[in-house]
Amino acid sequence: MPPFEDELGQALRRTGDSFSTDQQRLADTGLVKGRRTLRRRRAGAITGSVAALALVGVGGAWAGGLLGGTGGGRGDVAAPVPSVERTSGKGSAEGDGRNETGKAEGAGKGDGNRKAETATGTTHPITAAWMTDTFKRLMPRGELTQVEARGTEAKHGFPNSPMVSAIFDDGKGKAAVLLGISRTAPKSQMARELVTCPARAYVRFDACNSEKLSDGSDFMLLQRYVRNTGKAKEWRATLVTPDGLVVDVSEHNAPAEKGKPVSRVDPPLDPHQLKKLTTDGAWRTVTGALPEEKPADDVGIPGEPGVEEMQKDLAALLPKGLKLSDKSGQAGFASLVVNDGKGGSLVEVNAQLGMSDLLGGKTPTEPDGTVVTVSRSGGDKDVPGIVMLTVDTVKPDGRRVVISAFNSDTQHSAPTRKQPALTAEQLKAIALDPTWWK
Q: Which of 10, 158, 230, 255 lies at a CB distance of 3.0 to 4.6 Å from 260, suitable for a disulfide?
């Protein structure tokens, strides 16, 4: 097996090396594949929280999408965000880094090196100029500044994922808008996760709608908050076509996702405009310029329990008399909210293989050689008073179960109770139960 640094580099380069990540997003094409192959090798100080089980990827995917920052930046480590069933509720011409200013309405009518305007299935590269021109042409009336784009020109041995970002001003305040295109395996778990609404336990949002379009594509539009201030917003639309093309567009109510003050109440494009931009047929022409993804690329790790199995086992192992709600999960992970009559308490569990390197010469605490670590820490730094109680168990053969309980029903809202609903002993009993490896 190649060194971890090599694997990490390949995963980052595969998705593209100029996006930054959003810590609340699940994972895009590169992220989930990175998680499958790399999470077993992530040794270090990892707590039991799903937010701390770091996953590798660039850009987000679900709940980060393909883009997580405005313009360039280094690829950061992203954290997973479990998803649940579908819900609804309330450039430069060649990507050289120069900024470009122009009007969105009617812009981009020059030659623009329009290699993408051939039939879907073309093998011609998609240029930064074409991405810029197409983006300008499809945006509503307003001023575009700081336009940066990238095409599919190969870099580090891998074709880039095309992207374009800009600051858009319709006269009501400047806002960052980002569009990225990638490809995933059709009908794969990755494809489903990209257009599945997130669990409210991990993402604060006003509304999320997921639907099947007439051509068989899946589409999701999420209106969420970037931070827990209740002011910084991100509206994100994601399209996954039947042949695996992924178009991801995000917009903010500030000139940047982070580091800039809010400039307007809502992002500039309303949900209808955002959907129209994301689903426009022009982006479909990029399909042939991106390598086809195979379903085998994003399968889970053999031996690790699947999402339904994880959810069922966690519910069965909990103490009797608890009211259960808001279940969510993915392969190797499950969570739900329990209530003993004193307030909701989020409980989450991870099961992993190949984690013996975390033992690090630690003295076994159990007769069979298992090392059990109990920790207590705060949760979201922006939410005072949250308590996270974690029990981390690692067996000599590398099988690991980590379980956490919070004194809140989400990771981002105020405490609902003084202490988590489960004690450390109860969490330990659940983590050490042989059910996880049956």
A: 255
Instruction: Using DSSP, state whether 382 is helix, strand or coil.
Output: coil
Tokens of residue 129, six digits:
């100029």
- Whether the per-residue pLDDT at 301 is higher than 70: the answer is no
Half-sphere exposure of 433 (CA within 13 A, CB side): 18
Please tell me the total number of residues recorded for the chain in this structure.
438
The whole-angstrom separation of Cα 34 and Cα 185 is: 14
The interaxial angle of helices 307-317 and 424-432, nearest 10 deg, is 130
CA separation, residue 140 to residues 28, 103, 269, 280, 298 (Å): 27, 9, 8, 13, 36
Report the predicted TM-score, pTM, of the whole model to 2 decimal places.
0.65
Number of alpha carbons in the 13 Å side-chain half-sphere of residue 47: 16
DSSP secondary structure of 279-347: H-GGGGGGGGGSPPPPGGGG---TTS--HHHHHHHHHHHSPTT-EEEEEEEETTEEEEEEESSS-EEEE
**391-436 pLDDT, tens per residue?**
999 999 999 999 999 999 988 888 999 999 999 999 999 999 999 9
Q: Which helix (H) or strand (E) holds 175?
A: strand 174-183
pLDDT over 70 (residue 56) = no
The domains located in the chain, with CATH, are 84-294 (no CATH), 307-437 (3.40.1000)
Residue 405 to residues 260, 379, 420, Cα–Cα distance (Å) = 34, 11, 6
CB atoms within 10 A of CB 383: 16
Residue 6's pLDDT is: 37
Rounded distance between C-alpha atoms, residue 100 and residue 66, angstroms: 22
Cβ neighbors of 242 (< 8 A, separation 6 or more) are 186, 215, 216, 217
List the Cα angle 90/197/330 in 5-degree steps.
145
pLDDT digits (tens, 9 = 90+) for 263-296: 999 999 999 999 999 999 999 999 988 888 776 4
Span 214-220, mean pLDDT? Answer: 96
Q: Tell me, rounded to whole angstroms, the distance of Cα 311 from its chain centroid.
A: 21
Whether 395 and 369 have beta carbons less than 8 Å apart is answered as: yes
Instruction: Write out the two tokens for 370.
Output: 């298992």
